[in-house]
Amino acid sequence: MTLRRIRGLVAIFLIILSGCSHKTRKVSPGKFSINDFSRLNKTPINKIATPSSYEELQSIIQDAQSNGLKISIAGTRHSQGGHAFYPNAIVISLKKLNKVIDFDAEKKLITIQTGITWKEIQEYLHPHQLAVKIMQFANLFTVGGALSVNCNGIDPSFGPLIESIRSIKILLANGSIATASRSINPELFSLAIGGYGLFGIILEATIEVVEDSLYKRQTSLIPLTKYANEIQKIAHDPEVGFHLSFLTLTTGGRKLFGDVAVFNFKKYNATHFSNRQHKTKRKLFHQKFVALQKIGINVWAHSRLVKALHWIPEGLKHGQVVSRNNIMRPPASHLYVELSKETNLLQEYFIPVNNLVPFISELESITTKLHINLMHVALRFIPQNTESYLSYTKTDRIGIVLFFNQKMTPEGNRKTKQWTKYLINTAARLKGAHYLPIQLHANKNEVLKVYPEIDNFFELKKKYDSRELFMNHFYKKYVN
User: Fold this and answer.
1) How far, in Å, CA of 477 to CA of 97, rounded?
2) Claim to verify: residue 186 and residue 242 sit in the same structural domain
């Protein structure tokens, strides 16, 4: 069988972690319901507002306060615990506030309105041979949403998103617009980035960008026990621009996990390329055959063989030269599949490098015991950064991203809660953390073990928002 045919046969199982936007449904005159990526958090709301100016946004806030309503802020709603909405709240979408405000190619800085998506920024930067510095692995998200969760990426040189942010402008509960940076309102800067929309509406951000360099893919398979040492070398190799690994699943037998499929992207000297070759390599990728790939996702969820082979499409790209922009715009729209009885979900845990093997051992044990429909485990290196108030990288960490399928039944919810709490407590015991934008299965004490500063975080919210105008399910669950 030819390499080309193999690629064609397995392409529909290409694994990239992300999703797409979600519907809002009108349930009665003047009443709406809203949901997120999980489709497990249907919530009645007052309305969705899509302002096209800051003045209109300020008017909405004033009206909400006058009528005793709460405000929630939503991007593409990939947080899975109701972080972007609240019962009877006005949900603000910034999709019309998506302009580029300023751009300095020489200084490698871009100032944008936060309703813009990473995809739109990439398309703006592309003609200038520049690229985003830090973002989620996929480009479907809004910058505002990414800031609210202080996302992380797969460039091992950089930590969470806050590292690349020079400053923000944020609309506060009193209607004023404040600038926050490391030198101006530094406390607000630390709170708002990774603040889940609780301190105000981030309107603008000035972001550092980098060159749209070329990289050559390298693929290898190594045992998990050797991966921790290998990642330390990779993280400190200046030639590695990106690193991503998949923990392979077996086709059967007593062991669930096999070796680690390691994908490194090393800087590539393309001085011998012609102008035409440079242009071809940097041409932006656009996803095709989404409907077919959605079928592949359904097959993948229920086939152990497909789960075991899902890393191969990436492995077949060994030796390929690819641009930074294209590495950071993988095909992802197919991963949101709206089935009536099941849903595909994401979780992420951040584990100190030396504790990776014990955590994976516990993950394998609970997955086997409870028959978790685990589809994919991705690993990435995230260096220490404590600038965000609720930091999840207090030391260098391995980000462990789980992609799994869950039945949309009370029993399905109960089982997911059971094993999620087990992994949350395992991460805490191993001096790691769980990512707060997942489903809200943890209780307050479990959150405090990992984020002991969260009560101070909530007290500081009241300093900036004394009437608790900005509200979501996350805050309501953990504030008391």
Assistant:
1) 30
2) no
